Amino acid sequence: MDATTVVKPEYPPSSFSRHHEGPAIVEVHVSQKGSVVAAKVLEAPDAAISDAVDAALKKWSFQPTLLRGTPVQVTGRIVFYFRIVNGKPVVVDASLDTRKRR
Amino acid sequence: MLVRSWKKLAIRFLKELSWILASVVVVLVSLAVYKHISSPNHASHDDFPSNATPSLARQVIGVGRSIKVAAIDFRKYPFSLILFAQPRCGYCIRSEPFHRTVSVEAAKNKVAFIVAVPSRKKAQQYLNDINMSSYITAEWKDLSLSVDGTPTIIAVDSNGVVRRIWIGQLSPTKEKEIINLIVKHDALDAAVKEKSRGGIDNYPILAAYGEERQIIDVSERAKTEPRQGVINIPLYELPIRASYELDHRRLQVVDCANVSLKACSASTDILAKAGYRTAAVGAGEYYQSCGMTALRERTQER
What we know:
The complex is a heterodimer of chains A (102) and B (302).
Chain A: E1 3-5, H1 13-17, E2 22-30, E3 36-43, H2 47-57, E4 61-62, E5 65-67, E6 70-72, E7 74-85, E8 88-93, H3 94-101
Antiparallel strand pairs in A: 1-4, 2-3, 2-7, 5-6, 7-8
Chain B: H1 2-38, E1 79-84, H2 90-94, H3 96-108, E2 112-117, H4 120-130, E3 136-139, H5 140-143, E4 152-157, E5 162-167, H6 172-183, H7 187-193, H8 204-207, E6 213-217, E7 230-232, H9 238-245, E8 251-255, H10 261-273, E9 278-281, E10 296-298
Parallel strand pairs in B: 1-2, 2-3, 6-7, 6-8, 8-9
Antiparallel strand pairs in B: 1-4, 4-5, 9-10
Helix pairs in contact in B: 3-6
């Protein structure tokens, strides 16, 4: 799954002020055309982060996945890390990082 | 003069040839010994039919599952014990005194005790050696049940429902638990309700690593409850999350209690590829057994 439009979720101020950090994992269902049909947050440090991730993912789009030349619906997982580094909120798209490393 | 030097040369050649031959023999013998020792159950594959090898489908005999065994009518007994063993499994041999005790106590308390072996014919010597007082023999293939390793003892109630599973050579506490179950039938329910720690901290072999290890549960979230000191990273997410959440300095132990062997193996492969020292441990009640999911460790040079 290669993303063509990536919108990074924002670190919700309420979560940051409460020092809520950790991984947020979203399962995305992508249509044959590459648009996000559904996004389900499987794990998140809190509800606000979950909402932020859900809202961001709905804006993502992907290159259509081809199976023997035919576009197919696909499901994948995207992992974000919400971290506080040197007192600042940082959101890392781990899936993107993994793609780059490949 | 020429003949003498030719003779000398021939003797020298023969001496060297004998040394080479001796070395080759030593290497071959060492290899054979190593192969024998490193085999998990020290049994040659020719000894038992390959289709009788217990598969790793632990789900087949899960606690709470109903099973049927042609060799026995469970309804006739308050409960039945099925022992899966094989003659050359070291842990089975070491457990023989306990298995004899089980047989004696089972007979006294009218509990059925079935000894399941790979092949009755070939295992006859073993069955004679263990000299049990009372038992029913069956072959693995007849039972149509699969176990993780040997020895395995399964407690089945009178409705044919699996109530407990003990895998491997058991600790004295676990052995006592089984004897108590045989003597006090009502303890079967109590034992089922008893919450064991369930985690793989029970494994004595892991104690050697002290705190320098991390236990990873690779099953899907919904299947397991979070356990203290265990990170739940589903297999599907492991390639992405490992480098963010796991420490290269620690041994990464995959708890395979709730996943298939394939998933277990894939997890250790992913971790080993990412440069982690990894180990995999089987079901929660494993102690030490002859089987494919016994603890195995792989190290990859970084």
